[in-house]
Design a protein that fits this description.
Elements (H helix, E strand, L loop, with lengths): L4 H16 L18 E6 L4 H15 L3 E8 L5 H7 L7 H22 L6 E6 L4 H7 L31 H15 L3 E4 L7 H16 L8 E4 L33 E5 L2 H12 L2 H12 L5 E5 L4 E3 L12 E7 L2 E7 L9 E9 L11 E6 L2 E6 L4 E2 L4 E5 L2 E6 L1 H4 L4 E8 L11 E6 L9
Parallel strand pairs: 1-2, 1-4, 2-3, 4-5, 8-18
Antiparallel strand pairs: 6-7, 9-10, 10-16, 11-12, 11-17, 12-13, 13-14, 15-16, 17-18
Length: about 450
């Protein structure tokens, strides 16, 4: 029987780990933070994210007797680089993308089987790879469904998927999240953060937060932890280093205040994680060193920060530019501190999505604020109209935007984002925050 290179490597690592450890610890014990009563939900924007970010946690949860479910929001079917390396052809036709998605699903089944999961533990939604952020920003309410530019697909095409036939709309994504959460009632959730550099990873977090907000009285509050996959020049070193520690990235725009938990993995867990990663052959074909660099002696998780929108002056900040959100006389005050003044070349985009319990989120305003050429443009995409009354001040390296409280409709929380076309202008390039107003009731995310 022919033995694959990955299996041979795994066997060597297992032998080394068992030789170095007492027999009683050859198989890793479940960590104290998982019990048989736990119901663990892992949100994976693409197949492979679950293994890269939480492959060890999945093993530990299963070892404790906990129930584990993985939800794949997309099939990862829009990775043209992987297609060129693995399939030796570009993604051009609709059939090409669907074939790519089926390959990724097959790989997910193989990888999670290594970790100990069954096919029935996996849920595939089938929403568009590289389209989740666009859906979150633009496709609410009466807006038409998102349509892929290349494939012209506007609804879930995979017949076996949980969301088969559903239009690519934000309401449908949230509805599916709520359905899964209500049925499974997780006690612990692992998800990618809103400051991950991949836009689908940001959107997965936002859809989860919105669904949890809607369901906050339906079941006990789950503990939510975030796992990072994409950051600048990270992880280091980019290669298989099972004995090395996985440290947080040195630079993390939008996530500077994250407090990271380092959860150690037993050597045998790291071996199984590396073996599971190797099952993603289409991704290993072009990013092998990056993927295997997640098979380390620990995993990293962060708790979502409890960010309150208050009228108190913001705490002193250090570093380069910053975006600060505050409340002033019931109005939303957004201050952007720049390294250099904006000019006709620099474009600043700010999104403000207010939330109120009992009001469908798609019917709430969706404000898009765009500063270009020293002029401010504000629109409400939910109502398809311009927003009146927004004012701004530009003083050298500081831009202040005031959004009147009447436009916000007295929200409990705000989903906000700021990004610019000049990378050096803002630290929060494309990252999102979920801000709770003083006195508002929102999930604690323990």
């Amino acid at each position: 029987m022919k033995i694959s290179k990955a299996a041979f490597l795994a066997a060597i690592l297992i032998f080394a780990a068992e030789a170095a450890a007492p027999a009683s610890t050859a198989r890793p014990a479940a960590p104290e933070n998982f019990t048989a009563a736990d119901r663990v939900l892992v949100i994976a924007p693409h197949p492979d994210d679950e293994t890269l970010g939480a492959g060890g946690a999945i093993q530990s949860a299963l070892a404790s007797g906990a129930a584990v479910k993985v939800v794949y929001v997309t099939h990862g079917d829009h990775n043209e680089i992987a297609s060129l390396f693995y399939l030796k052809k570009p993604l051009v036709r609709k059939a090409d993308f669907i074939r790519s998605g089926k390959i990724r699903k097959k790989e997910a089944l193989a990888a999670t089987a290594v970790l100990g999961l069954r096919p029935s533990d996996l849920v595939f939604l089938g929403y568009p790879d590289s389209g989740l952020q666009r859906i979150w920003r633009k496709h609410w309410g009466k807006s038409k469904p998102f349509r892929s530019f290349l494939t012209q697909i506007s609804r879930v095409p995979y017949e076996e998927d949980f969301s088969y036939g559903k239009d690519y709309t934000a309401e449908n994504v949230v509805e599916d999240f709520r359905k899964i959460l209500s049925d499974f009632k997780p006690t612990k959730i692992f998800v990618t953060p809103p400051f991950d550099l991949n836009s689908d990873h940001q959107a997965a977090y936002l859809f989860l937060r919105l669904a949890l907000q809607d369901l906050r009285d339906s079941f006990p509050e789950p503990a939510v932890r975030m796992y990072l996959v994409h950051a600048e020049d990270w992880p280091r070193p980019k290669r298989l280093a099972p004995d090395a520690a996985l440290a947080p990235p040195a630079s993390l725009p939008g996530g500077e205040e994250a407090v990271w938990e380092r959860r150690p993995l037993a050597p045998a867990q790291t071996v199984l994680k590396a073996d599971a990663i190797s099952k993603y052959k289409s991704q290993m074909a072009y990013a092998k060193n990056f993927l295997l660099s997640f098979a380390r002696s620990n995993e990293l998780f962060a708790k979502p920060p409890a960010e309150n929108l208050t009228s108190a002056p913001p705490p002193p900040r250090t570093g380069r530019a910053e975006v600060e959100y505050g409340e002033e006389g019931g109005d939303l005050k957004i201050t952007v501190r720049l390294q250099e003044p904006l000019d006709e070349v620099g474009t600043l985009n700010i999104d403000v999505f207010p939330y109120n319990a009992g009001v469908p989120f798609g019917e709430m305003p969706k404000y898009h604020i765009r500063f270009f050429g020293r002029k401010l443009f504000v629109s409400d995409s939910a109502r398809r109209r311009k927003a009146e009354g927004v004012v701004y001040r530009l003083d050298g390296d500081r831009l202040t935007v005031i959004l009147p409280g009447a436009l916000l409709e007295e929200p409990e929380i705000l989903f906000v984002s700021a990004e610019t076309s000049k990378e050096e202008l803002s630290l929060e390039i494309g990252s999102w925050k979920v801000l709770r107003r003083d006195g508002a009731r929102a999930p604690l995310l323990l």
